[in-house]
Design brief:
The protein has helices spanning about 50, 60-65, 75-80, 105-120, 125-135, 150-160, 165-170, 230-235, 240-245, 265-270, 300-305, 375-380; strands spanning about 15-25, 30-35, 40, 90, 100-105, 175-180, 195, 205, 205-215, 220-225, 230, 250-260, 275-280, 285-290, 315-320, 345-350, 355-360. By secondary structure, it is of the alpha+beta class. A hairpin with a 4-residue loop joins β1 (about 15-25) and β2.
Length: about 375
């Protein structure tokens, strides 16, 4: 995968990163920390990332452990992007966590799309409708907070104007959309192929911030994710969300979980710029970005709506937080917008988190998902890591 930026964040000497390595010698995963350019094997202490994120002394564990002499970081990074038989490489940095996702979390862009559709392509008419909404709520569309008094006023106005939809309900209503994106252990990592269904003719990547949350509902760190979406499938019916979202290799997470510490905080995660680059074998290139500071619901609110007394996750969960970016650039013909081609290289990056890189294939042709919970437990038991 040429032209790939560094998988590491811009400040690798200061970042505390958690990753998973698949080493063919073990025929299974090892849990590692990447700190100050060295790889620290934490598997003997915590054989799963899920268990590791329950501990409050992760930084101390890393400081007390000696750098691994088994794996060189440069070799691991190289073999992750350029696979070699029998070579250890990084895989998705989560394991037993449930993979959840939130949708329609950027209210300003959502309402703008509704306004544009209502205006029929006329900028003047769009400005009139936008001004009407602003007058009705007394504030800018981009300032609407879900569940607020202003959001309720917008809801009533849009119902009167015939603009209401189920997407607007979760976009500015009190309840967030939260769904299960993928099964436990099914996510692919950096360097892997990522899948779309053969039958899909309109689809796109969704670059997102992903929260790593433990069983107590604590956000311990963040990473990058690609919540691949089949727009034609979901567009036919919202009841096809599962078919549009959950397919073989349709969920990519990585490259690492960056833990919160004095160098990187939750507040910084609220103000990240996430960049997207798609490069096709046809010479097509698409660039875009999504800023987490423009999200309509706070990250902690999304977590609270996902877990609590109403729903527990004893092994924690990974939570996709939604995206501002919706690719509209025409690729194949005027007016048809963007859709993936086989062989597209998708790069999702953020300076503080590194880069997630995947190549697009059909889900039906991607490597089959065969390593589930039984496989993981059997492998860890065989290696004497369960006790």
């Amino acid at each position: 995968m040429n032209r790939s930026p560094s998988l590491l964040p811009e400040d690798p000497a200061r970042a505390l990163l958690i990753g998973r390595i698949h080493d063919p010698e073990d025929q299974g995963p090892s849990i590692v920390a990447i700190y100050r350019g060295a790889v620290h094997d934490l598997t003997p202490v915590c054989p799963t990332v899920s268990r590791l994120l329950e501990r409050d002394d992760i930084a101390a564990l890393v400081a007390q452990s000696a750098p691994s002499t088994r794996w060189a970081l440069d070799d691991l990074l190289h073999h992750t992007l350029e696979p070699k038989p029998r070579a250890a490489h990084f895989v998705a940095p989560c394991d037993l966590q449930v993979i959840k996702a939130c949708g329609v979390t950027f209210a300003d862009s959502m309402l703008e799309r509704v306004i544009e559709e209502r205006a029929g392509g006329s900028p003047a008419e769009a400005a009139r409708i936008r001004a009407q909404i602003g007058q009705a709520i007394g504030t800018a569309v981009s300032d609407i907070r879900p569940g607020s008094k202003e959001a309720a006023q917008v809801r009533e106005y849009l119902i009167q104007e015939g603009l209401w939809s189920q997407y607007l309900e979760v976009g500015i209503g009190p309840d967030a959309e939260v769904f299960t994106k993928a099964p436990v252990l099914s996510a692919v990592g950096t360097g892997a192929e990522i899948g779309i269904l053969e039958a899909s003719e309109w689809n796109n990547p969704e670059p997102e911030l992903v929260l790593a949350v433990n069983s107590r509902g604590q956000i311990r760190g963040v990473t990058l994710g690609n919540d691949v979406n089949l727009r034609d499938v979901e567009g036919r019916s919202a009841l096809l969300l599962g078919k549009a979202k959950d397919n073989n290799a349709s969920c990519a997470i990585g490259p690492f979980i960056r833990l919160f510490d004095a160098q990187f905080t939750l507040d910084e995660a609220r103000h990240l710029e996430i960049r997207l680059n798609v490069t096709g074998t046809d010479g097509f290139e698409l660039n875009g970005s999504s800023s987490t500071h423009r999200i309509s619901r706070d990250l902690e609110d999304l977590v609270a709506q996902t877990c609590g007394r109403h729903h527990q996750y004893p092994d924690g969960f990974m939570l996709f937080t939604g995206t501002l970016f919706a690719p509209t650039d025409d690729r194949d013909a005027p007016g048809q917008g963007f859709t993936h081609h086989l062989g597209d290289i998708v790069r999702i990056s953020s300076p503080r988190l590194g880069c997630l890189v995947n190549r697009v294939t059909h889900s039906e042709k991607a490597p089959e998902w065969t390593r589930g919970i039984h496989w993981l437990m059997d492998n860890l038991a065989r290696r004497g890591l369960l006790g």
